[in-house]
Amino acid sequence: MTQKSAALLSVILGFAVSSAWVATDTIAQAQSAPEREPQVRPRSAPPSGSPGATPPRRSDVPGADVHGRSAPRNELARPPGIDKQAAKKKPAPPDTPEARDKALSNLYAQLATSADPGEAGPIAAAIETLWVQSGSDTVSLLLARANQAVVERKTELAEQLLDAVVELAPDFAEGLARRAYLHYSENDIGRAVADLRRALALEPNHYRALDGLVAILREGGQKAPALKVLKQLEQVHPHWPGIEDKLRELEREVEGQGI
């Protein structure tokens, strides 16, 4: 696996463990809120590194959550001041596909209009918690084992497990997205793109899949299509790390191709 492949693969692994406490509260609020229409947000946020700009959250470290914090894979420590009784009162995640879809719709609307990375972080954590909810204990177990196999660099086993996930749950976008990154790490670009497009057909707002597709298109010299997908990503997640710089770079590259 090349360094570049490992870096992109880590994107999909970086949210295998998310901030469960923040995410659960945010999901509960999204479930109870009326559905919101997504609004187009102008690109007015200060670029990364400028005065007043909040540094983007890191999500590209395997085993870290969307805030860049390391956490044990199977057990998250309770935040300070939260006791066991308080933990028991945490609201349950959506228990039906309809409830999950409603929560996601509200969360995507909140993410698209978030003011800065600090506000976007907990919303993204909640979204990613819902992404991995397959509705099947078997599929969830296979996905977890596949993730562990990737961490241990057992690529063949990981591929077998993800193939099983996709076969059992062909409409589960997360299984397709993770298999796409595995294909990419093995330089199987055609299958990676196919899985990413299938994932996006099921979950058009999957900003990590959008980011992966941008990277592949850009590496393949398809600058204009990459820019188009990147603009989609900006509408979904305006505070995606480094997006302003990527937009400026791709816009210059596309303009250069037209000369």
Give the percentage of residues in beta strands. Answer: under 5%
Q: List the secondary-structure elements in sequence, H or E.
A: HHHHHHHHHHHH
Low-confidence parts: 5-22, 44-51, 54-90
| SS class | mainly alpha
Q: How many E-type strands?
A: 0
Instruction: Give the helix tally.
Output: 12
The level of helicity is 55-70%
> What is the 3D shape?
flat
Cα-atom radius of gyration: 18 Å
Oligomer: single chain
Between the first and last Cα atoms, what is the distance in angstroms?
Answer: 36 Å
For the largest beta-sheet, the strand count, sense and barrel status come to: none
Mean pLDDT: 78
Task: Write a concise keyword list for the protein shown above.
259 residues; mainly alpha; 12 helices; 0% strand; flat
Give the helix/strand layout.
Blueprint: H1 3-13, H2 20-32, H3 84-88, H4 97-112, H5 117-131, H6 137-151, H7 155-168, H8 173-185, H9 189-202, H10 207-219, H11 223-236, H12 243-257
Give structural notes.
This protein has 259 residues and is mainly alpha-helical. The chain contains twelve helices and no strands. α2 packs across α5 and α4 runs antiparallel to α5. The radius of gyration is 18 Å and the shape is flat. It starts with a helix and ends with a helix. 40% of the residues are buried.
